[in-house]
Amino acid sequence: MGKHELKRFLRRVYARFLYHSRLHVLVDRWMPRRLTILFGHCVADPAVNGFLPPDMKIGAGRLEELLAWFAARYEMVTVGEGVERLRAGGQRSLIALSMDDGYRDNRTGLLPILARTGARATVFLETRPLDRGQVNWSHKLFWLLDRGEPIGDLARRYLSSSAHPATRTALERALATAGDPVYQVKRALKYDADPDDRERVIDELFRGRGGDEAALTRALYLGWDDARALRDAGVELGGHTVHHHVLSTLPPARQAEEISACAASMQAALGGRPTVFAYPFGRRWDYDQASVEAARAAGFSAAVNTHAGTNAAGGFELKRLPIDDGADLALLVAEACGGFDLLRRGGGDLSE
Known about the structure:
There is one protein chain. The protein has 352 residues and is of the alpha/beta class. The chain has 18 helices and 11 strands. The model has no long low-confidence stretch (mean pLDDT 95).
């Protein structure tokens, strides 16, 4: 067993110990007040989002089960409310649910679950689908793969159309690398492709297979009327850029435009400027200091990433815990109660 596998094993053992012994209740009371943010993307609907990867979906029943468990034990808030409550002080620790990108099922599937559980939610909107009826390149790639397009054939056709030398080199290397070819090709396109060249080539492949971008956008994404309905139902709406590019691959001026234009579009459509922001993809290498500065300059009071952990008062960048159908309640509970923070206090670290 390697170092990382051992660490994951010990995380699970420790989490199950806290959960099944109910020591998580005592740890929660003893540790400082904190905000735990759960995050997902879609409420699963096979007829609409079945072609998206499993880690982007969570079944309605599983989501309701998780939210009901936390709602019975924690104060449920939106991300923005959680930030303000931490700053104001109080007793109970806080749980927020966030959903990224702005999918239509966040209205049709999520709202009834929130009503039944008493949970709150923040939905982070990528604004191009709402403003222009267009989806980002990854959804077209997922659509093509779902229709049986071999990833190697797609990559080779991409190579024949791409005008970007670095992309060509990265894709050729990905095809020659051992391991999951889908992962390797997606990673090369995500980090090494020129964003504009990638949009053009993937759109060519999508349309060549009969893809209808406007129809795909309508099926998958919220419209502005849907967004207003979410807002009116008490869901917080946050910013998530215009195009959902990896911010760290863009020059600072373009990062600033992605973030500020998203906020401006939301203000125009919703009548209020968003106060919370989510970095696309959200790993530490997916954004940089220019991203942080641009989010602050655009007026956001907090920005979330996708690294596991809990949040104390005073921070601008906030951690989140991913949830999908494979979410382990014991691990979520161990994080939310401050169990992994407690270990770090004692000099141990089983964090992600």
